[in-house]
Amino acid sequence: MPRLRPGQSEKFLSKTQEVLYQKEFKHADRIYKQLSQRGNRS
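-> structure tokens emitted (42 positions)
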């Protein structure tokens, strides 16, 4: 198994984490908007 240079794996992890976080945030934002619209209608 090839050893990564110090900092390389952390950088990769943070980048993956960032993408996942953005996906989660967009998903949550969409749900929040749907719920707030539904609440305004009734």
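The chain has one helix and no strands.
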